[in-house]
Specification:
This protein is α/β, with parallel strands linked by helices. It is 55% helix and 7% strand. Helix 17 packs across helix 19.
Length: 789
């Protein structure tokens, strides 16, 4: 396939722009130029029906979307009934489809959504292949002609930049031509994707049905699709609709925000700098002079934003940037500067070639001025689900960020002491369990169920929050009901997929407990006996025992056992008496035998947690320490290096060895680490021991003295060969434990050097690099020593 010649281009444009009973308007979905031209195009054509590229199952929202009291930006959301494939269709005042819908509503013209429904059977998204391409395409030539890196920038150069003062019909023809060029390029690169073809089949059927009714239709679609919708179509291959029943779709209309509409937020069909595009739409409606004045006004605001960031940017800088932008527009024969000229003026006059310091300040100032912070609002009477009002009222009652709150933030809660924080924690946990993107816990409980009094959450209301509340409303009308329904459905799904393993059971129980779902907690806790005891690993058994203990003690904020702490939404809860957690301890001791081949650090921590349970007396009355001690002894002799190191340290906690034995063992590990495999084993043994024995080194000088003396006895070559393994092993300590151990070592060496200065024990260089440096120094020293005197 060869690129079209000039005659073919003219013929294609003539077919696309012809207006008999149908006006075809090919748009970019967020285009100030097309939005400014839309009303005049519709007024001239006088359609009896307006057809919009929008999934058919979102059509019910058009009357609310086009409502005169709606404030853009907003987004139509469509979600599969199982919560997958959340799709947003954002609209701003500069979205041509929204302008067309508003015009149609104001003139009493029916509006129809003609895109393929979201509920239709899925079609695989296929990328374009390069096979079948011969030479440069028409798009390649246009990109080279306008020095544009991609189709998005090409639209800006061809359509947006030439729109000020242009006739609306010229703007429409430019959009249609560029869409046809994009489609021609796709055809030469392997063909239009099956998904797009299926959508176009549906759109053609809707247009044909309108023709049969005698409609005079204005069809507003993406410019890429326009060629497939003329009769007969161009560059179009019909595709059959796949078989399958339609899926359930949950739809909603939600407020949106400019920062999300910006292309850099991740929205694939976004537009750069929506705040600027909003203002450019107003300027386009006034004429070229207003567009030129807009550039000057924006540059002044950018300079102000830079001064707030302690950067030099005054009136002369803004004037010079505006002069550069205007001169570039004239050199390019443009009626007024566009976004391209504005950004080039900024880079030349304000950036001064500094891409990092000053360049970053300009970028942040542009985000503030050009992106904007505008948020939309729905019109009165827009339908909402039953869950939405409940969540909004609950968040307001708890003084948490809601739809009217601009910014989220970090919450530090003390749910064990504050009734308000207890309710907040339960609410945030339920929102998380329900799959509603609103809150993320950034610090929970430590491994093994060790409790922390405070909880830290990051909360923020986003458009996705609103959309997912609409979906979650299918499971109930209260947050508690919805959260329980979500967990029950998750358990059912895991069971059907045969993935309801022991770790999943413990995770479900933990989430249900944190969300205060008492009835579900009782059901899931009863499942921790029977097959679970034989299937679960040590970590799952220890975590389950710790969780049940916390629930019984009333230490799970959303499951209080003290009547004084109970509230309407955080009710009193007591576990059933028949749940015997001592069975979990017995199973955990038996599970130790399964760790002989483990190299997972979480297993070493679980061993420590189990020994701590015995030290506290929980389980020792039932089993005694003999069986536990025998299992630990076996791991200390036959386990992997990691497990062996942890087990040898645990023998001291069980009273089966003294502290000096650990120092001796570690010295032996150092001595045998003479091969690469030996040094690897040294690192893993040390890591296992450090997970368990860090407090021992801080408290027992005997254990530390034995280890340090063995390290000091190594010569330089022996130490450098082992230093990487030593560092890797001690990295198993937490940052706080490393700091405490360093303090002990500093104190051991007197805390100061010979000159009275504090000893610097911080080592930032890579140990392997240090070994190479030392080897080079030694070689140099030996070479010097060999010189004749």
């Amino acid at each position: 396939m060869s690129p079209p010649d000039e005659g073919e281009v003219e013929a294609a444009l003539a077919r696309l722009s012809a207006t008999n009973d149908t006006l075809l308007v090919g748009v970019r979905h967020h285009s100030p130029a097309m939005s400014a031209a839309m009303e005049a195009l519709l007024e001239r054509f006088g359609p009896s029906r307006v057809l919009i590229e929008l999934p058919k199952d979102l059509e019910r929202w058009i009357e609310h979307l086009a409502h005169p009291e709606l404030r853009a930006p907003v987004a139509l959301a469509g979600v599969q009934g199982d919560g997958s494939d959340l799709s947003f269709y954002p609209f701003a005042d500069f979205s041509p489809e929204l302008v067309a819908m508003r015009w149609a509503r104001a003139h009493g013209v029916p509006i129809e959504a003609i895109d393929r429904p979201l509920s239709a059977p899925p079609i695989a998204r296929e990328s374009f292949a390069e096979e079948g391409r011969f030479g440069p395409t028409l798009l390649d030539r246009l990109l080279a002609r306008f020095e544009a890196p991609d189709g998005e920038h090409l639209w800006d150069h061809v359509v947006e930049a030439r729109a000020p003062g242009a006739d609306p019909e010229s703007v429409r023809r430019a959009g249609l031509l560029l869409g046809w060029a994009l489609r021609t390029d796709a055809s030469m690169r392997g063909g239009v994707s099956p998904r797009d073809l299926a959508r176009e089949v549906h759109m053609r059927a809707c247009i044909a049905a309108g023709r049969a009714r005698g409609d005079r239709a204005a069809v507003v679609v993406g410019a890429f699709h326009a060629a497939a919708l003329v009769d007969p179509p161009m560059l179009f291959t019909p595709i059959e609709e796949p078989e399958g029943a339609p899926s359930t779709i949950v739809t909603s209309l939600v407020p949106y925000a400019f920062e999300l509409l910006d292309a850099r937020s991740g929205y694939p069909a976004g537009i750069r700098d929506p705040g600027l595009m909003e203002r450019r739409l107003d300027a386009l409606r006034e004429g070229p002079d207003a567009c030129e004045a807009l550039v000057s006004a924006v540059l002044v605001e950018v300079c102000r934003a830079m001064r707030r960031r302690k950067q030099v940017a005054g009136v002369p800088d803004a004037q010079e940037a505006a002069r550069v932008a205007i001169d570039l527009a004239r050199l390019r024969a443009l009626p007024a500067p566009s976004r391209r000229e504005l950004m080039e003026g900024l880079e030349i006059a304000l950036g001064r070639g500094e891409l990092l310091g000053r360049g970053r300040a300009i970028a942040r100032a542009c985000d503030e001025v050009l992106v904007g912070s505008r948020r939309g609002a729905l019109a009165p009477g827009t339908p909402r689900s039953g869950l939405g009002p409940h969540v909004h009222a609950l968040l307001a009652d708890l003084r948490l960020p809601g739809p009217d709150t601009k910014d989220g933030g970090t919450l530090r809660l003390d749910p064990q002491r504050s009734a308000l924080d207890r309710r907040r924690h339960a609410t945030l946990s339920r929102l998380s369990v329900a799959g509603i993107p609103y809150a993320t816990e950034v610090r929970g409980e430590a491994a093994g169920g060790i409790e922390t009094l405070g909880r830290v959450w990051k909360v923020e209301w986003t458009p996705a929050t609103h959309a997912m509340i609409e979906l979650a409303g299918l499971r109930g009308v209260t947050l508690r009901q919805v959260a329980e329904g979500a967990l029950r459905r998750e358990a059912m799904r895991l069971s059907e997929e045969e993935r309801l393993v022991s770790s999943a059971r413990v995770a479900l129980l933990t989430r249900a407990a944190e969300a205060g779902l008492g009835a579900l907690v009782d059901e899931l806790a009863r499942d921790l006996v029977g097959p679970f005891l034989d299937e679960a690993g040590l970590r799952e058994l220890v975590l389950a025992h710790a969780l049940l203990g916390r629930i019984r003690a009333g230490h799970v904020p959303a499951l209080p056992v003290d009547p004084v702490l109970a509230t309407t939404d955080v009710p009193l809860h007591v576990l059933p008496v028949e749940i015997d957690s001592s069975l979990l301890i017995a199973a955990a001791v038996r599970a130790l035998d399964g760790l002989l081949g483990s190299d997972r650090e979480e297993d070493a921590r679980a061993m420590l947690d189990l020994v701590r349970l015995f030290e506290s007396g929980d389980g020792s009355e039932l089993l005694g320490e003999g069986r536990l001690g025998w299992a630990i002894d076996r791991l200390a002799t036959d386990g992997t290096p990691l497990v062996m190191g942890a087990a040898i340290a645990l023998r001291i906690a069980l009273g089966r060895a003294d502290a000096s034995s650990l120092g001796d063992a570690m010295g032996g590990w150092l001595d045998v680490a003479i091969t690469p495999e030996g040094r690897k084993a040294l690192a893993r043994r040390l890591r296992g021991a450090m997970i368990v024995a860090a407090p021992l080194f801080e408290s027992s000088t005997e254990a530390l003295d034995r280890v340090v003396s063995r390290v000091e006895a190594l010569d330089d070559e022996g130490f450098l060969a082992r230093v990487a393994s030593l560092r890797e092993g001690f990295d198993g300590l937490s940052p706080a434990a490393r700091g405490r151990l360093l303090s002990v070592l500093t104190e051991r060496y007197g805390g100061v050097d010979a000159a009275g200065r504090g000893i610097d024990v911080v080592l930032d260089d890579d140990p392997a690099d240090l070994a190479r440096f030392a080897a080079a120094d030694r070689a140099g020293r030996e070479a010097i020593a060999s010189w004749p005197e």
